[in-house]
Amino acid sequence: MNVALSTEPTAATGRDRLGPLIVTLFGLYARGEDNWLSVASVVQLMADLGVEGQAVRSSISRLKRRGVVLSDRRDGAAGYALAEQTLEMLAEGDARIFERRRATTEDGWLVVVFSVPESEREKRHALRTSLTQLGFGTTAPGVWVAPGNLATETRRTLERRGLAEYVDIFTGQHFAFGDLRSKVRSWWDLDELADLYADFLRRHRPELDLGVTTPSQAFGLYVPMLTQWRRLPYSDPGLPLALLPPGWNGVTAEALFERLNTTLSAPAREHALTVIHRS
Fold it and tell me: For the chain, what percent of residues have pLDDT higher than 90?
C-alpha cells in the first residue's frame, strides 16, 4: 500500500487521527463485502466508536484525496472501496500483524544498500519510507539492516513498488566487530519501541477484566485496539530476544494482543456485519 501517504497508523493527532481508525474498519470488514462499505454503514460504525458523523465524512474525504479509498456508488447507495494499492498493503499488513514470527540469531541479517540518482530523489524517499515500514534499522547512510527472516517480504515489497532497480540485498551473519547487542540498540530506537509497547499495555490490559458480554461492546474495544497495534509490527521487525534488553515488554504486549484478538474479533465482526447489512 503505493498511495500518496502511508495508511499505516502514526502518532497522528487532530484532524488526521480518524484516518487510521477508518482504514482499520475497511481492512476488517470491507474486504469480505466485495471491497465496499456504504457511507451510512461507516458513519454508524464510527458512531459506535464515539465519533460524530461530520468528522467521519471529513476524514473519509481526506483518505479519498490521498488515494487510499475510492468513491463507489452501488445500487444507488453512496460508498467507498479500498484502492488497489491499499488492498495490497493491507494484505502485507495481515501477514505482519497476525502471522509474524520473531526472528532468532540463527536467521542472520538482511542488508539493503541503495543508490538513487539525484534526478529521481522521489524514489529515494519512497525507498526510505518502504524500508522504515518494513522495520529496517539504519547502520549508515544508504545502508539498512533487518532480521534475515524478512528477506522474502522485503524483496516482494520493493519489487511491487518499482524500487528493485535501485537496491542490492544481502543476507548473512554478523561477523565482526563489536558487541551486537549494543549495535542493535544503535540501529533501532529500543527506548521508543519499549514506550510504544508500554502504552499499548497500559491502554488495553484492563480490557481483559471488563467481562465483555455483547458484540457491540466487543466492537467498541476491538477496532481501537487493533488500530493501535497495527503500528507496532511496522516499528519493530521482530528482533531476536537474545539481542534485546531482559524482560522485553514487547513479548508481554504480543501475548496481550493475541488474547484480545482471540476474544474480541469474532463478536466484533458479528456487530459490524449486522450494521453493514442493515445500512
Answer: 66
